[in-house]
Design brief:
The complex is a heterodimer. Chain A is an alpha+beta fold. Chain A is 42% helix and 27% strand. Chain A has 5 helices and 8 strands. Chain B is elongated. Chain B is an alpha+beta fold. The chains are: A alpha+beta, B alpha+beta. Chains A and B meet through helix 1, helix 4 and strand 5 of A and helix 5, strand 4 and helix 8 of B.
Chain lengths: 207, 299
């Protein structure tokens, strides 16, 4: 489906993309985000829930954010935050923590910050990859598919993809504060052929 | 040509801004709802017309769209609206302004450079009204219009946690209408319902902004009093009792009077759960009943 060499090129592209994303994020939102060297794996849809469950098993309570992206490069982004992340991020983004002491408004504020930060991070990563591959992407609004639940609560229903996919995993961390999480990009099978061509073209620039 | 017509005629607001926040396009939907014509606004800075947009979040969103070519979303639940448009045509409106779901994204030129961004504005007022109604139905008692017991359970937990965290005083009052069964038996259930409504609205009118009143059971009510010690709670309870005692209820040309008994309790450090507090107020209420009704008791 995709060769080892292509995986290597993709890893390289992701590395460049995430590097640019991180430096632009620092400029735009004034927050330093560290994105780990991406890990790439070809995975069958049926294996995906097991794989992700295993990746997040050490986190106790989590929130998962999902966003669909559609261009020639298309798929889904899944962002997994540990539950305490929202409170830290609210502080980092300078939102008013004490605007209300009631439980409901806090949950609303937490959702807001996770959707905002998630949307920015996903947009930055996907945006930079597609820029390198000369593609333009449209995004669905981010959706919280699991909110402050034990990681066990994630089920197959949360990940109902029918095709095999390329899974790109990165660990992100904010340098201020102690928040890190996982970002999975699941590229749909339909875009694999396009991706192969795009990778080829990308390499031709250097040949 | 076709796209230009769709742009003008679509039932969605469409705005195009350049990097300097100047309006480049403003469709008819925006003209119609804002009352600002295309001629007036095109070429002008959007903040001149909508200073409310000049926020950190809005500017950050524009920056991310221009930098990454990504999208930004403004959900109704979180923002209510971007463009303050007065509502017309909604008789039952809880909102002063049109509720909007907005999306912002990049527009590229032939060289694939992002020179503009678009904002589209969807009117989601109707949905937002339904949603508020649903939420209300879920927490309100349909007969009396005060909160229901289900909501009491979550609200009392919340107050309990707040008390544990900040140690502020917290009291509750349990209220029961005396001889309510007699009202039902003598005057019928419609009259009983009427009395329930009158009593709850009278008590509601006396409560302070921070207090909340719940229908606990048949003719039993519960009032949560945050930031209130036992002494003040007793004063408030007495105010309730006297107001109800003095109230004349007119039902089918008859005047029906009722009294209430009240049990008051304050949260103390040793209480492990809010239900201990409820039980204590309940026990005080039973004492009030046993001592002859129409009175306020704290244990």
């Amino acid at each position: 489906m995709i060769t080892d060499e292509e995986v290597e090129i993709l890893e390289e592209i992701m590395n460049i993309a995430f590097g640019k994303a991180a430096s632009d994020l620092a400029e735009v939102i004034d927050i330093h985000v560290a994105l780990s060297v991406p890990y790439i794996k070809i995975i069958k849809a049926s294996e995906l829930p097991v794989y992700i469950k295993d990746e997040i098993k050490d986190l106790i309570n989590i929130t998962i954010l999902e966003q669909t992206f559609l261009g020639k490069f298309k798929g889904n982004a899944l962002m997994v935050f540990p539950s305490y992340a929202a409170k830290e991020l609210i502080g980092m983004f300078g939102l008013d923590k004490d605007s209300s002491l009631e439980s409901d408004p806090i949950a609303t504020l937490e959702r807001e910050i996770l959707m905002e930060v998630g949307n920015i991070l996903i947009g930055a990563c996907i945006g930079k990859i597609s820029e390198l591959l000369k593609d333009n992407v449209t995004y669905s609004p981010p959706q919280i598919i699991l909110f402050n639940q034990p990681s066990k609560a994630m089920t197959e229903n949360h990940l109902s993809y029918t095709n095999s996919a390329i899974l790109l995993k990165t660990v992100f961390g904010f340098q201020k504060g102690d928040v890190s999480g996982l970002l999975f990009l699941l590229t749909r099978q339909e875009s694999i052929q396009w991706l192969k061509n795009a990778l080829q073209k990308f390499m031709e620039q250097y040949e | 040509m076709i796209f230009a017509q769709i742009f003008e005629n679509i039932n969605i607001g469409l705005v195009v801004l350049d990097r300097k926040m100047k309006v480049y396009k403003w469709n008819r939907w925006m003209e119609m709802n804002s009352g600002i014509s295309n001629e007036e606004i095109v070429g002008k800075n959007i903040f001149e017309f909508f200073p409310n947009l000049n926020t950190e979040k809005f500017i950050r969103s524009c920056d991310t769209v221009f930098t990454f070519g990504s999208f930004s979303f403004f959900f109704q639940k979180q923002h209510g609206y971007l463009f303050p448009f007065k509502l017309s045509g909604f008789i039952d409106s809880r909102f002063e302004y049109m509720q909007q779901a907005c999306t912002m994204g990049p527009l590229r030129d032939e060289k694939n450079e992002i020179k503009h961004l678009f904002i589209y504005v969807q009117d989601v007022t109707a949905v937002a009204i339904y949603e508020t109604k649903l939420v209300e139905m879920n927490i309100m008692d349909s007969l009396t219009g005060v909160y229901n017991r289900r909501y009491l359970q979550s609200k009392i937990q919340e107050e309990f946690r707040r008390h544990k965290r900040y140690g502020r005083p917290f009291s509750i009052i349990m209220i029961d209408i005396d001889y309510f069964k007699k009202v039902n038996d003598q005057h019928g259930h419609l009259c009983g319902d009427y009395i329930l409504k009158e009593v709850s609205s009278k008590i509601s009118s006396i409560t302070r902004v921070i207090d909340s009143l719940f229908r606990y059971g048949g003719e039993e009510f519960c009032c949560l009093l945050p930031e209130t010690n036992l002494e003040s709670a007793l004063t408030i309870a007495e105010r309730f009792r006297i107001a109800i005692m003095e109230m004349e209820n007119h039902f089918e040309k008859k005047i029906i009077r009722v009294n209430i008994s009240l049990g008051v309790a304050e949260m103390t450090k040793d209480m492990e759960s809010p239900y201990v507090l409820l039980n204590k107020a309940d026990a005080a209420l039973y004492r009030a009943k046993n001592k002859g009704r129409n009175r306020t008791v704290a244990l």
